[in-house]
Amino acid sequence: MDVASKILLVVLDGAADRPTFENKTPFRSASLPFLDQLAREGILGIMDVIGPGTPPGSDTAHLSLLGYSPKDVYSGRGPFEAAEVGIDVKPGDIAFRGNFATVKDGRVVDRRAGRISDTHLLAEAIRKQVHLDAEFIFKESAGHRAAFVLRGGGLSPSITDTDPHRASALLQSKPTAAGAPAEKTAKLVNDFTRQVCETLNDHPVNRKRVEAGELPANAILLRGAGAVPHLVPFEKRTGLKAAVIAATALVIGIGKLAGMDYVPTVGATGHVDSNIDGKVTNVNNALKTHSFVLLNIKGADEAGHDGDFNAKTQFLARVDTALSRLEIDESTLTVITADHTTAVGVREHSGDPVPFLVHGKGVRADQLNGFDEFFAAQGGMNRIRGIDLLPVLIDLLGKGQKFGA
Amino acid sequence: MDVASKILLVVLDGAADRPTFENKTPFRSASLPFLDQLAREGILGIMDVIGPGTPPGSDTAHLSLLGYSPKDVYSGRGPFEAAEVGIDVKPGDIAFRGNFATVKDGRVVDRRAGRISDTHLLAEAIRKQVHLDAEFIFKESAGHRAAFVLRGGGLSPSITDTDPHRASALLQSKPTAAGAPAEKTAKLVNDFTRQVCETLNDHPVNRKRVEAGELPANAILLRGAGAVPHLVPFEKRTGLKAAVIAATALVIGIGKLAGMDYVPTVGATGHVDSNIDGKVTNVNNALKTHSFVLLNIKGADEAGHDGDFNAKTQFLARVDTALSRLEIDESTLTVITADHTTAVGVREHSGDPVPFLVHGKGVRADQLNGFDEFFAAQGGMNRIRGIDLLPVLIDLLGKGQKFGA
Asked: Could you say which of A361, A383, A400 has the minimum Cβ distance to residue B54?
C-alpha cells in the first residue's frame, strides 16, 4: 500500500486564540515559515476538540485527540496526575491532585506553602502516621504538588474539593451525589485532611521552616477527584506503538494510562522557557522506534492565561524554529494542532475550534498558504470533532475499520 | 411551491480517491465537462458516508444514502443479496451469500467451482434432498453465486462464515455470541454444509463435469450472515415513488428491501465495460414515472481495487459522457456522489469523505468551477454525514419534517 506508516501528533497547548487586534491571532502574527510550509503541502481544518462552544480542559482534550471519549472515561483530573507521579493507579481507584499548603486557624494562608520545594520527609510522615478506613496512596511530586489515591470498593468521585482554590478557609469535602459511596469518600477525605494537619503541624521540617521565617507546609488541599478509568491500551486499539513527549504531568499521565512509553526531556518545563529543542530531538529518536508519537508543547497556554499576546506570538515563532528540525517526510503523517484555545482576551480556555493540519502521504492537499485559525477555517478537512481525529489518521494509514462489506 | 419535484441520486461506486500523483485524483484528472457544468450551477460538499475515518461497505453506504441508519438495520450483507435473487426475505430471517465451490478431502480447491455458469439442477437437488431442523430457502444466482436463508424463531447472525475466503479448508461455522440462537444457527449451517456435500458429490451434473475435466461444484460456502431488517418502505417514509437502476446484486437488493422498483438494464455488468448508456436511458424513462431514482454505476470501484489510476480516470470520463444524456432540468434535484473512496493507493475502501453535488431548484449555488474532491471540500454544503443527505434533499423538495411550531 502506498500510505504513510507513522503518525506524529504535535499539540501546541492552548496555542489557538481569538483575534486581539487587526483581526490577528498569535498564529497569524508570528513568523512560522516551517508550519506554513507544512500547510502548503498538507490539508487544513478546524476542530471542536470536545464540541462547539465547549472549552476543553487539557485533560479531556488530550483524551479526545487520542481517541478516548472523555464522556466515557473522564470524571476528574486526579487519575492522570497520579499516574504521572508513578502511582500504579487501577480502574476503580479515586484519585486526587494535591497541594502542600499553609493553614492557620483553619484558613488557607498560602495554597503552595511558600512554594516549598522538598516535601519528601513530610510525605513520609503522612504515609506513616495517617490511618484511614480504606487503603490509600500518597505521593509527593514536583514542588508543592502531590497525588492522593483512595482504593477499595464503594467509593465515588462525586465529592467537593477541600481546596478553596483561592486563599480562603480550608474546606470540608461534601458529597455531590446521593448514596453511600460519595458519603464514604467525602468522610475519608475529611479524615485524611484532619490527620494530615495533626501530623504536619509540629513536624521538624515545619518547625525549621517557621524558625527560618518560611511558611509551614501543614496541610494538603485536594482537588480534581476522578475515578481511574480503564483505558484500552492505545497500541491494542490502533496497532501503533506509541510514545509521549511532554513536560506537563497531566499529558504524561494520560500517555502512561494509555500504555504509551514516556520519553523524558531534560529542561522541558512546560513554560515559555521550555527546552523545545530537546523535545524535538526526542521526537526524532522516538520516530525510529515508535509508530505514534505525541508531542505536547506547553508555553503558549501559559502566555494565553497571562493575557500576553506578544509572549504568545514570540513563543510560537520559537516553536516553529524548533519544529523545523523535525526529521519527517511523506511517510510520517504529521499533525499540528492545539488542544484548545486559550484566548489572550479571556485569559482562560475557550470553546473556539482549534486549527489543525495534516501533512503526509494520501492527504488531499488544499494548497492554502499558511497555518493559522483563518486559513484552517478554509481547509479541505472542513470542521471535525476531536474524537474523530484519530480514526481519520488511522484510516490515512490504510488501517481504517470498515463498517459493512 | 417553487421547488424541485424529483430526486435523481447518482452513486458512482468507489469513485472518490486520494491524490495519487501531482495531488491529482481520478476525478481531478478526468475530463468531466458535464459534471463540471452541474457543479458550476449547483452546490458542492464533502460527506462522511458513515463517519469520519470509517471506510464504508457498499451496503452500509447505500443504506445511509437512502436514509436508513446502518447501525440500526445492518448486521451483514446476506439479506440484501438474498433479496436481489428474488427470495422474499422477511424480518427475522437469517440470510447468507453463497458460492458453489469445489471441495476435495475437506479442502477448498476452488472457491468458484471453476466459474460454473449453470447451477439450477444442483440447486434443485439441494432444495429436494437437504433436510434441516428449520425452514430454509436456497436459490442459485448468476454464475457460481447463490443465496441461503434460514427462517424461524431463535436464530442469530452471530456466527462465523464457512467460506475460508481464500482457498483453504472448508470451515465449520461457530457462534460468535453466547446463547442458544447463535449455537442453533451455527449447527443448522453446519448441517446444511454437510448435507450439501453429500447431495452434490455424485450428482450427474458433477459426474459430467469431472468426465469433461472440469471442477465439480460439490459444496456451498456461506458468508455475510445477516438478520433481515425491517426497512420502512422508502415511499412510506418519503412520499417518493422510487426506482433503482444498478448492476450489482447488493444495491438492487437494498432497493428491493426498501420497496423500490428495480429497473433492469441489459448489458449492465458492474464492471468498467458496463452498459452505462443503457442505464442512462432507463433513468430518463424512470424519471417519467418515479419521483426518486437511484442510479448506481460500479466500474470505478473495480479500477480502484485494481490500483489502476488510468482505468479509473478513463471510466469516469466515459461516465461523464453517458450522464450528459440525462434528461434533467431544474425540477429534478440531481445528486452526484460516491458511496465511498476506493483509493488507488490502498486498493480498498477508505474512510476519506466523498465529494457530492446537488443541482436543481433551491440550492444555494456556490459557483465552484468543477467537480472533484478538492472543489467539493470548498463547497457550500461543507461537510455532512451520509445519513443526513436524504433529509436535506427531501427538505429541498419542500417536504422537510418540521420539528416545533
From this structure: A400
Contacts of A381 in chain B (CB under 8 A): 377, 383
- What residues contact A187, with CB distance under 8 A and at least 6 apart? none
How far is Cα B92 from Cα B114, in angstroms, rounded to an integer? 34
Chain mean pLDDT for chain A: 95
Indicate yes or no: CB of B54 within 8 angstroms of CB of A401: yes
pLDDT tens profile A306-344:
999 999 999 999 999 999 999 999 999 999 999 999 999
Query: Given an 8 Å threshold on Cβ–Cβ distance, is B70 in contact with A405?
Result: no
- Residue B143 CB coordination number (10 Å): 15
The alpha-helical segments, DSSP class H, found in B7-57 are 26-29, 33-41
Nearest chain B CA: its distance from A399 CA (Å): 8
Q: Determine the Cα angle at B365 with ends B364 and B367, to 5°.
A: 150
pLDDT at A272 over 80: no
Pick B55's closest partner by Cβ from A366, A388, A402.
Answer: A402
ipTM exceeding 0.85, yes/no = yes
Of B326, B271, B273, B278, whose CA–CA distance to B302 is shortest?
B271
Query: Is B165 in CB contact (< 8 Å) with chain A?
Result: no
- Give pLDDT, residue B166: 79
> How confident is residue A181, by pLDDT bands cut at 50, 70 and 90?
very high
Strand residue runs (E) in A175-271: 219-227, 242-245, 261-262
Q: Does A3 touch chain B (CB under 8 A)?
A: yes
Whether residue B3 contacts residue B397, with contact meaning beta carbons closer than 8 Å, is answered with yes
Chain B residues close to A378, C-beta within 8 Å: 378
CB pairs under 8 A between A and B: 106
CA distance B310 to chain A (A): 16
> Could you tell me which residues come within 8 angstroms of residue A178 by beta carbon, excluding any fewer than 6 positions away?
none
Where chain B has pLDDT below 70, the residues are 167
pLDDT of residue A1: 82
Secondary element (H or E) of residue A78: helix A78-84
Report how far residue A205's alpha carbon sits from residue A234's, in angstroms, rounded to the nearest whole number. 43
Neighbours of A167 (CB within 10 A): 12
CB–CB contact B346 A1 (8 Å) = yes
With residues binned 3-state (H G I as helix, E B as strand, rest as coil), the percentages for chain B, rounded to 5, are 35, 20, 45
Chain A residue with minimum CA distance to B20: A362
Confidence of residue A280 (pLDDT cuts 50, 70, 90): very high
- Surface of B (326-385) touching A: CB under 8 A: 343, 345-352, 373-374, 377-378, 382-383
Q: Return d(Cα B269, Cα A396) in angstroms, integer.
A: 31
Q: Give the mean pLDDT of A1-18.
A: 96
Residue A402 contacts B, CB cutoff 8 Å: yes
Q: How many CB atoms lie within 10 A of CB B160?
A: 17
Helix A33-41 and helix A309-323, axial crossing angle in degrees, nearest 10: 60
**Of residues B259, B283, B279, the one with CA closest to residue B270:** B279
What is the identity of the amino acid at A253? G
User: End-to-end CA distance of chain A, in Å?
Assistant: 20
Question: Which of A238, A363, A395 would you mutate first to test chain B, the one with the most B CBs within 10 A?
Answer: A395
The pLDDT of residue A153 is above 90: no
Residues of B in Cβ contact (< 8 Å) with A402: 54-57, 348-349
